Amino acid sequence: MDTFFEQSLLLIYSSVILFLLHYIHKSISRPKTPTETTNSGTPKSYPLIGSLLDFIKNRSRFIDWTTEILLATPTNTILLRRPGMDPMVITANPSNVKHILMTNFDRYPKGELFTSHLRAVFGQVMFILNGEPWKDQRRIAVHEFSSTTFCNCAVNIIAQETHTMLIPILERASRMNHVLDLQEIFERFMFNILSRLMFSEDPGALKASPLVPLHMEGEEVLNIGSERRFKDSISIIHKNLERIMQTRLIETRGVSKDDIISRFIDHGDATVDYLRDIGIGFLLAGTDTTVSSLTWFFWILSSNPRVEKQIVEEVEAVRAKHSKNPGETFNFKEIREMHYLHAAITESMRLYPPVPFNVKTCSSDDVLPDGTLVKKGWNVLYNAFAMGTMEKIWGNDCLEYKPERWLEDGIFQQQSPFRYPIFNAGPRMCAGKDLAYIQIKLIVASMIERFVIEVQDDHMQPEKILSLTLLMKGGLPVKVRERCSEFKN
Ligand code: HEM
């Protein structure tokens, strides 16, 4: 079992990187006739080669590079011209984001360029499907995720995993004064939780984790993920998930369990392949996104002791209000009372969005609200990272980490998802958003009450991995210290 889950983690991690490189490679080599009329800005562009030189120079810092250009462009929309191909529209303009994600949703499906590679690797996973197959899966997922029974069950599982697996690792690291890669720990941990929520399987991935884990750089991941090993990993993950699903199909018919896969078995004639693809899809959608959010959150918190103090006070206040003993876990209702923590997590994802960009393909000629012409077949990408740092959206303190901007009289206030498309927006908004907040809040509350997380080299800006999710190159080395009374003065 361990091999399966170790391989699965590796596969998920490396596949998004491979996908991105594949995607970028395809987008600079796909032959198409360019037709373009636009009022938008562009990166430096030359006859015949378009923006290729700049693109190659900046491809390892694609997110930062496009952000710099978007912020300097009046409409916050640019065209990336590639030789002999369609331009790619890149936008950070909330009106355009609303247009592609909601108002003109049907005109901007998941395009073949985005889906073909992932489909070949993973099968019919939900977030690459269009049309009826997507609608069917989404209906079941949204219904399940919004049920109170599921939320309560999720809280129990997350709390149990936190206290039996995560906290003991942190305790040990604190006792032995070891450096941990927090990102790597979160990867294993979130994978555990997702496996239990999805199909009641406990992979025990954390139990196998050494105290000072190996961490993988992007290049190492790519080496390890070389063709043969990559195929082996896919084959292992497929075989094991098929085995799990086969057993579940026999066991679950007529006997409902409290996990997500049971809901898909309950609805209609589920096959092993269908359930396997759903399983992989949810593991992909829910693991690295929450890992990214947690990792950047602890990094940003390490240089914001004022915010840390407020969170600790809020967690302690909720504990006191409900007369809970130290170490006793919080329930769903209590977690929802932590508005400051909710704001602090939301604010950290504004500056470091777990999914920094998202791409759609235009299915018929169109004009975006800012006047940009988009032709059929062109890809339109929104850059959530750029949007998080725009003065136009967040005001002149846009670069400051300020959870208070999300609070009114201490109560968390939502912002328009078109200004803050961290969970996507419109009909395809993240199906696991509420679950993600429950997970992250519960984990942070449990960790922060008990430990101080000391980021090593906290003044260094971590390097971003070129991936679909915003992970840190080299992980996040931390030391862990038992919290003393320093915040109680
Ligand atoms: C902080 C954590 C998370 C963030 C920032 C996030 C963000 C996103 C984004 C941006 C999308 C749109 C992707 C696209 O259209 O290509 C998405 C879709 C999705 N997410 Fe999440 N996600 C998070 C956690 C989760 C979790 C924990 C789950 C559940 C296991 C989940 C399940 C899904 C699903 C099923 C979709 C596909 C929705 C659809 O296509 O209709 N997500 N998420």
TrEMBL record:
<comment type="similarity">
    <text>Belongs to the cytochrome P450 family.</text>
</comment>
<dbReference type="Pfam" id="PF00067">
    <property type="entry name" value="p450"/>
</dbReference>
<dbReference type="GO" id="GO:0016705">
    <property type="term" value="F:oxidoreductase activity, acting on paired donors, with incorporation or reduction of molecular oxygen"/>
</dbReference>
<feature type="binding site" description="axial binding residue">
    <location>
        <position position="430"/>
    </location>
    <ligand>
        <name>heme</name>
    </ligand>
</feature>
<keyword id="KW-0408">Iron</keyword>
<dbReference type="GO" id="GO:0004497">
    <property type="term" value="F:monooxygenase activity"/>
</dbReference>
<dbReference type="InterPro" id="IPR002401">
    <property type="entry name" value="Cyt_P450_E_grp-I"/>
</dbReference>
<protein>
    <submittedName>
        <fullName>Cytochrome P450 94A2-like</fullName>
    </submittedName>
</protein>
<dbReference type="InterPro" id="IPR017972">
    <property type="entry name" value="Cyt_P450_CS"/>
</dbReference>
<dbReference type="InterPro" id="IPR036396">
    <property type="entry name" value="Cyt_P450_sf"/>
</dbReference>
<dbReference type="GO" id="GO:0006629">
    <property type="term" value="P:lipid metabolic process"/>
</dbReference>
<keyword id="KW-0503">Monooxygenase</keyword>
<keyword id="KW-0560">Oxidoreductase</keyword>
<keyword id="KW-0479">Metal-binding</keyword>
<keyword id="KW-0349">Heme</keyword>
<dbReference type="GO" id="GO:0005506">
    <property type="term" value="F:iron ion binding"/>
</dbReference>
<dbReference type="InterPro" id="IPR001128">
    <property type="entry name" value="Cyt_P450"/>
</dbReference>
<dbReference type="GO" id="GO:0020037">
    <property type="term" value="F:heme binding"/>
</dbReference>
